Amino acid sequence: MQAQRLRIALIGPASAAWRLPSRCSSAAWRWPDNGAVQRGDVPSAFAAVLMRFAKANRAVVTRDQRLQADLGIDSLSMIDVACATEDAFGIWIPDEDLERFSAVGDAVHYIRQAKPAA
To answer: 103 and 63 in contact (C-beta within 8 Å)?
Structure first.
C-alpha cells in the first residue's frame, strides 16, 4: 500500500495532466542576454554556445561539422548545449527534436524555424 502511495506521489494519478520540470531550470543555465539573440545572428550565437561546451573555435565552426564526430559533443554535452541554446534564443527544444541534430547546420536550421517558448 505504501509503495503504491509513493508511486502515485512520484508520477501522479493517471488522469492528471502534468509535465516534468525543464531539464534547464537551474539559474546556472541562464544566458547573459536572456534570449535576446536576433534571428540573423543564429550561426554566430550558436557557435558561441558550442565554444562553451565543445571547446570549439567560433571562427572555424561550419554548418557541415558533425556535432559528435567533429566537435566531440557526447550525449551529456548535448544536453548542456540544448539548455544554453534554449536560453540564448528563448526557444524550447523537445528531446525528440534534439536527437535529430547531427550537424551544426541541423541545429541552426531548427533554431531559425523555432517559435519562441511561451
So the answer is: yes
pLDDT tens per residue across all 118 residues of the chain: 554 444 444 444 444 343 334 555 444 334 444 445 555 689 999 999 999 888 777 788 899 999 999 999 999 999 999 999 999 999 999 999 999 999 999 999 999 999 888 7
Are 85 and 49 in contact by the 8 Å Cβ rule? The answer is: yes
Gap between the Cα atoms of 2 and 62, Å rounded: 55
Name the CATH superfamily, with its identifier, for domain 26-113: ACP-like (1.10.1200.10)
The three cell numbers locating residue 65? 561539422
Contact 117, 92 (CB under 8 A): yes
pTM: 0.68
Q: Are 92 and 30 in contact (CB under 8 A)?
A: no
